[in-house]
Amino acid sequence: MALTEDWQRQLRETLAEADLEHLADVCLRFAQPAWAIIPIPVPPTGATRLGGSPDLPPSVEWPTDPDGARGNFFGQLDLASLPSEAGFGRSGLLGLFTTHLESAAEPVVVDAVLTPAGSPLEPVEASEVDDDYADPDTGYLTAVGVRFDQIISLPLTQKDFIAAVRACTDNADDLYTLVELFEERTGGSIGQLGGFGNPHSDDDFRRVLYFHRHGHPNAQWCDHFHSREEYLASVTPAQRADPRRHGEEFDWIFDTADAIASEAARWRLLLRIDSNHAMRLNLMDWDPIYFYAPADEIESGRIEHVEAMVTQG
């Protein structure tokens, strides 16, 4: 999704004000439009909202975890009402539930319910008893409507972007300045639609989710080098042999680098919801939750696979 000419001009002006105009071309190559999420009054049945209770067809039950507890309902997206530039290819109502939300060390289990447009919908009565939910610490969330304000998003934690920026400058501080510019949250925002996740942990969650899917969860803690050569230059043989350093995970990352990069590139940030007062949402240490889906499913509107991660601290 390319930026409009107006947004390209705004990006250049923002970079110039920070003395980073020499990074304009590389930033424009990677930049995508995204939308800050601003809370507004609760809309009617079937509309986009976060928190509260879902609207579901009479034949569809509220998703539950294996023990029968209700999944935590984070919100629903009326795909037809989302900004057209966001690239959602069909109409329908996408409900996002989590049935396991434990820590930043493991993925959040998501149950995504896509209801076709035109289906009869009924508001499902929620329980305000937190213990009725799969994650009682999250519990019942206050409902809010939302509006979307367009912003510019850069992939600040993606290896290819970081390498491209470093290749354009001799000043190591330029990358940190860039991060400070584009990590700022829009005033009043409680999250983001589309764009890039950029968690404060500096992880690329598209890669982290791949690691977990393929049985290498500890690779998350090893994914900090751009090449095997860079890794080997940073450690002594004794350090490399130390099992606490997950040496085998480093080897796996480098041996499967092409497959990891290819699969990670298929996934896009669907939605980030920040901990916020409007929804009465407090995750971990006032952290966000990041929902991802395959880009081809977003573009077709047939969203079936949604995964999520949280940060902590």
Can you walk through the features of this model?
By secondary structure, this protein is an alpha+beta fold. The protein has a single domain, classed as Roll (Hypothetical protein YwqG fold), CATH 2.30.320. It contains 10 helices and 12 strands. The strands form 2 sheets. It has a 10-stranded antiparallel sheet. A hairpin with an 8-residue loop joins β5 and β6. The longest helix is centred in the N-terminal third of the chain and has 13 residues. It is globular, with a radius of gyration of 20 Å. The two termini are 32 Å apart. The mean pLDDT is 93.
What distinguishing features does this structure have?
ten-stranded antiparallel beta sheet, single chain, 313 residues, 10 helices, alpha+beta
Neighbour order of strands in the largest sheet: 6-5-4-2-8-1-9-10-11-12
- Report the radius of gyration as a whole number of Å: 20 Å
Q: Give the CATH architecture.
A: Roll
* Number of structurally distinct domains: 1
By helix and strand content, what is the structural category? Answer: alpha+beta
The CATH topology name reads Hypothetical protein YwqG fold
Name the poorly predicted regions: none
Query: Superfamily at the CATH H level?
Result: YwqG-like
Map the helices and strands.
Blueprint: H1 5-17, H2 24-30, E1 32-40, E2 49-50, E3 55-56, E4 72-78, E5 93-100, E6 109-115, E7 122-123, E8 144-153, H3 159-166, H4 173-183, E9 191-193, H5 205-213, H6 228-234, H7 237-241, H8 247-255, H9 257-265, E10 267-273, E11 289-294, H10 295-300, E12 307-310
Antiparallel strand pairs: 1-8, 1-9, 2-4, 2-8, 3-7, 4-5, 5-6, 9-10, 10-11, 11-12
Helix pairs in contact: 5-9
